[in-house]
Design a protein that fits this description.
This protein has a single domain, classed as 7,8-Dihydro-6-hydroxymethylpterin-pyrophosphokinase HPPK (Alpha-Beta Plaits, 2-Layer Sandwich), CATH 3.30.70. The strands form 3 sheets. Strands 1, 2, 3, 4, 5 and 10 form a 6-stranded antiparallel β-sheet that branches. With 171 residues, it is α+β, with helices and mostly antiparallel strands. It is built from 4 helices and 10 strands, in the order βαβββαβββαββαβ.
Length: 171
Amino acid sequence: MATAELLAYRVEVFIGGGSNLEQPEQQLRSAFRALQALPESGELRCSSLYRTPPMGPPAQPDFLNVVFRMVTRLAPQRLLQALQAIEHAQGRVRGERWGARTLDLDLLLFGDLVLQTPDLQIPHPGIAHRAFVLYPLLDIAPDLSVPGLGKVAALIADISTEGLVKVGNFC
């Protein structure tokens, strides 16, 4: 691994996970194991598991969602590549936007970094508008602040929970 792909320090990151195809809970558990195996990373925790209706086309199954928290020395772009490799290994096919998928792993937050590149935006651009992200974040980091947006606990005040169902503990 090239030195530029590693940070000199460890940073706390949050990753959103979702699945609505091919045994979604098992897909998320496999993703958890794959995240545990990432180099230069550790201290993996996860939120409760939530079920939500799809954001995109309605003719698809409900999603199961979770948020993972870990610390890593991987640089943001390298972590994104690792997440996409996990998705691909679990059968992710990039097709219709917001369509059904075996696994979706979104890099939500990377410490207090604010970054905008053609292929990566941190914080994730939809973070403040998605109950299936904010409520799991609140589960594992109740005092968390999203750079430029404020505390997660305040952001949920304007979010509809229609269709959001807490399924139970995940890890």
